[in-house]
Design goal:
The protein contains 14 helices and 10 strands. Helix 1 (6-16) crosses helix 3, helix 1 packs across helix 8 and helix 9 packs across helix 11. It has 2 domains: 6-51 and 150-302, Rossmann fold (3-Layer(aba) Sandwich), CATH 3.40.50; 54-144, Rossmann fold, CATH 3.40.50. The strands form 2 sheets. A 6-stranded mixed β-sheet has the order 1-2-10-7-8-9, with helices on both faces. A 4-stranded parallel β-sheet has the order 5-4-3-6, sandwiched between helices. By secondary structure, it is of the alpha/beta class. The chain is globular and about 55 Å long.
């Protein structure tokens, strides 16, 4: 029995709709003409905290009991989940404790703290993150909110594709990036309920292909060292997300680092929006033809837009003299 269902996603919508942005859907005639398809980009890069993660974190916090809220929440994250959970906790008036690696982007650390989170730094290893989170749980009694493998997180992430389907109608194909699997799992469950004829495909960096290899092996691959600029997709599949994806997803497409960068640039040139590398992973296979979209109506979830542009602006300042 799967931990999450379409009913959970519909319940999540009722909990979070008043607090989230109903993010826009963009189209581009030039992109459509080049691909001989109709592409709808669901812009979760314009969601609060800059990514889809806010949906799942908010639903998880909103689902806590009164007793659990009194003790607060704990998570470990280098960026998007950290910010999302911190804001969700602030909205509901509870304390959040976030473990962040020492090499986390300072902009993301500052944003997390600005939402009232108690940030604890650790060494940049999975073991150090887990140990630090365990200590906080022991000290505070706070509830751990997993960034992707939590039932309520998965349900919250699934609300994005609910909006997509409501806004654009029938789709032949839905494409989403794949890291820990929360977004893809929620997308699979929601689409199977609302639009069962649509195919859902997950996209993963070739340098962090644990999900691709896990499906081939028939078991979760967790012992790997990710090497990708798509930092939001370096997390391995959880037990729950692996079960959902294994049952529902027809295929996983891998993309290279150069293809990720090309996709980021294309989205900026055509749609005039900034997306992070993790988002670009879902765009790249359309541009390369790895996913055949000719004649199809395609939904693409742009998962986030948290990019540190300081290097770009430093260069511009230097050019300005």
């Amino acid at each position: 029995m799967l931990i999450c269902s379409a009913r959970d996603i519909l319940a999540a919508r009722k909990r979070i709709t008043a607090f989230i942005h109903r993010t826009p859907i963009l189209t581009n005639t030039g992109v459509d003409d080049e691909m001989s398809a109709t592409i709808f980009f669901k812009c979760e890069n314009l969601q609060k905290t800059g990514s889809f993660k806010f949906r799942g974190a908010l639903n998880a916090v909103a689902s806590l009991s009164t007793e659990e809220r009194a003790r607060g929440v704990v998570a470990h994250s280098s960026g998007n989940h950290a910010q999302a959970l911190a804001l969700a906790a602030q909205i509901h008036g509870i304390q959040s404790h976030i473990v962040m690696p020492e090499n986390s982007n300072p902009v993301k650390v500052a944003a997390t703290q600005s939402y009232g989170a108690h940030v604890v730094h650790c060494m940049p290893t999975h073991e150090a993150r887990h140990k630090a989170a365990a200590r906080l749980i022991e000290e505070t009694g706070a509830r751990f909110i997993h960034p992707s493998d939590d039932r309520f997180v998965i349900a919250g992430q699934g609300t994005a594709v609910c909006e997509l389907i409501e806004d654009v109608g029938e789709l032949d194909l839905i494409v989403a990036p794949l890291g820990g699997g929360g977004l893809l799992s929620g997308t699979l469950l929601a689409a199977s309920h609302l639009l069962p004829s649509a195919q859902v495909i997950g996209c993963e960096p070739a340098g962090a292909d644990d999900a691709y290899r896990s499906l081939q092996a028939g078991r979760r691959i967790t012992d790997f060292v990710p090497k990708t600029i798509a930092d939001g997709l370096r997390t391995p599949l959880g037990e729950n997300t692996f079960a959902i994806i294994r049952e529902h997803v027809p295929r996983i497409v891998l993309v290279s680092e150069q293809q990720i960068l090309d996709a980021m640039q294309t989205v900026w040139n055509r749609l005039r929006i900034v997306i992070e590398p993790s988002s670009a992973v879902a765009v790249a296979p359309l541009l390369t033809g790895a996913i055949d979209v000719r004649g199809k109506r395609v939904g693409v979830i742009l998962s986030g837009g948290n990019v540190d542009l300081s290097v770009l602006f430093d260069d511009l300042r230097n050019q300005a003299g």
